[in-house]
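Morning F.,

Quick status update on the modeling queue. The single chain you submitted on Monday has been processed. Sequence for confirmation:
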Amino acid sequence: MKLALSFLLASSALAAAVDFVRDVRPIFQQHCYSCHGEKKQKSGLRLDIKSEAFKGGDKHAPDIISGKSKDSPLIHFITTDDEDELMPPKGKLSTNDIATLTTWINEGAPWPDGIDLAKLENRLDHWSFKPLQVSSSAQSIDQFIDAKLAEKHLHRSAPADPVSLIRRITFDLTGLPPTPEETTAFEKEFIQDRASSIQHLVDRLLQSQRYGEHWAQHWLDVVRYADTHGFEVNTERPNAWPYRDYVIRSFNKDTPYDRFIKEQIVGDAMGQDAATGFLVTASVLLPGQIGKDDASKRLARQDSIDEIVVNIGQTFLGLSIGCARCHDHKFDPITSKDYYAMQAFVAGVEYADRDLHTPEAEAARAEEKKLKARLAEIDKELARFVPLAKSGTERPMINARENADRFPPVKTKRVRFTIKATTNLEPCIDELEVFNTAGENVALATTGTQRKSSGDIGVAERHELRFLNDGRYGNSRSWLSNKIGQGWVELEFRQEQTIERVVWGRDREGKFTDRLATDYQIEACDATGTWHIVADASDRQKFDPKNQTKKTKPTLNGLTAEETKRAKPLIQEKAAAESKITQAQNAQKAFAGTFRTPDDIHLLNRGDPEQPKESVTPAVLSSLGSLKLPKESAEQQRRRALADWIASQQNPLTARVMVNRIWQGHFGTGLVQTASDFGHMGMKPTHPELLDYLAAEFIRSGWSVKHMHRLIVLSETYGQSSQIAEDNQTMRQSDTEKSSASAVSLSPHLIVSLSTSASTTDSEARYLWRFPSRRLEAESIRDSMLAVSGRLNLKMHGRGFNLFDQRGGLSGFDPIETFTPENERRMIYAHKVRREPETVFGAFDCPDAGQSTARRIESTTPIQALNLFNSRFTILQSTAFADRVKKEAGPDLAHQITHAYRLALSRAPTPEELADTLPLVRDHGLPALCRALFNSNEFLFIP
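Structure tokens below.
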């Protein structure tokens, strides 16, 4: 009665039309804005702005359906009896408020324009989405840096000394230390002409093949390169490495960056098949790991395409496009429709190996053909050296592919092969071969040999008795007995032969393994018509169905001394040929994706493949372009269009993102600290004008990455000292006078005051009042230890060497601790197991390829010191380092110590250091000093 009366009173009060400002907005303000207002939008619903309110939330949009309160989710949530759904969550609205909102919606939900108290952010009004702005009067890196420093009342530091400079530049460009000879030559040239010496050094290093190896690692971090598939099973990707080699070669050749982008997206149309390995670098579920139901397959496919879109977005555009998979991006102007339209560009890409068509791959195919021909000859020769039947030596197990029975030579005109038992049903023989002492197959029908059997099952052109000895292999041309588990075949030669070997199998191609004879005998008929058993299954290893398809490995067991002498080199040659064939085959394929008719892409509700909405066609992000393709566009055409749009000079993100990555590679942190997020949630650039100046110069140079290196490394900003405030108190006046012409000449005490202020104002040197020193990356530490010890193998490219005792799998990766020239190559050539950090150097923030690493965070942990001091690798390299020093410096301990310092630190020891280390070397040996040098900050940090 009371409830009815309340609604009656409410209805009377609302007899006049509901006014949004007077009646509705106060309810929203009091009860809804805390969760659905300007600062927070739970479930994607915002109620303080008209356009957003009528758009609705993520799961149930629209929430307000004009004229239909019963169908409006908003009314459902404020009236439901379900406590988990009721809104607001801390108390139901009053009856009057519910009645007001219900009436308002039924009246058409009138919401006048221009009355909202909040203003919707224009997400396009963001610095990175705007065209490049190059209007500053500054025309060099140093001028931009100095202008910003002046704003902060800071100033650049004095120039770095020549030893620090050569170490810094050499490490930055190649990831390796300079040799003592290179350091000495640079110091001499530096004294004569500082600018020219640095220019020559940079030019030389950029021409070095070591440059591409080092800078490729930065790129591989971003794209998540690994040699395994990832996820729980984490099996090997044996042909992933051609993409890694492609990246190394591209940096060394200075492939223009716009072309570099296009090759990685549509390299199959540009003669760079391995380049599209970029599209499939991420983890992926293999067919056996996906549920057999269609829903699981659809979800796995969505996940695999998502990884491609995410990779493209963060790598080239610096955007987190993947956030729009389930709903419109919360911060950036990327809608869910944009996301699925981007999917449509790559909807025909499959994670798989593809044949390479490079000159190297074609040469490998020719080599494989040649090796296989020789292998066939070897097999033919080795077939004569299988163990004799009934010789007392256990012979290999029967297998489905091929079995050889050798026996002492016997004269006969007829041979019978009798099957006593099989693995299943009627026995089947692919081809029966009989060889005489001259090595000729006398069983062939073409030689006039006749055949008969105990009975046949005839299947025209597939199972016929005439196929028993037609010289052609395969189940499609074989003999099939008409009795389960038994049967016999007999061959009669045109004339008597001296035979010594019979070869037979179920299916020489290995596709069929059932109906295999597991018990048999071979008989020869003598001139009197008597049959003699020459071989049977009694002396073979016990049959194991798991191994029945394996080919029998040649063995010397059971052979005479003369036969062993002849067979041994053939077995060795066979093993070498098989290894070379494997290498040749690996050089012909790359895990670079295959391409097919694109999937029909739909906008998915909440990213759920089981809730498809309207179909979408390929289109770029609507906030950054208008490119759209028709649905019938061919697969390659789609990727080409996407690549052209990304690599366009008009794209505001592409050049900015890459020059920022290059800057980061030299200073440790980019002008934009979030190198793969240039969106609203990323950091703003410290020097926006400089970033755009560099991006414009990048494009103007023809997208030359090496040009950007020169521009940065030759700047005075890069060449300044890394010394921080308190460490510069004793700086000489002459040092300050050598600073740039644009710098104010300061006395030492003023420099101390300035530096102290700089340390307080900008402790991380983000504004570059000094060069920000940083620790070497994990790969450079390992490579430098090998270089200094004289053990570094500079072999380039090819299949990766092993860091662990297995190349993929669930767990249990034991490190390789026996070092050979192969695993003393640069670390970029290591077989990278996803999510399994390298045992020693993985602790130095080496990415595990589980996620993209736009910037390596530099941590300091006890395990780093323990690994670097106690690992077997360090101990072995310290010994090798000491051996090298003794060989090159002679027996004098002072000379040895001095040479060790020059090799490791590019300088001689100070008198104090020499005095301190002499007793150490005398008492504990030179390896102890070498080990200490490897663990010193001076060795581990870029100065």
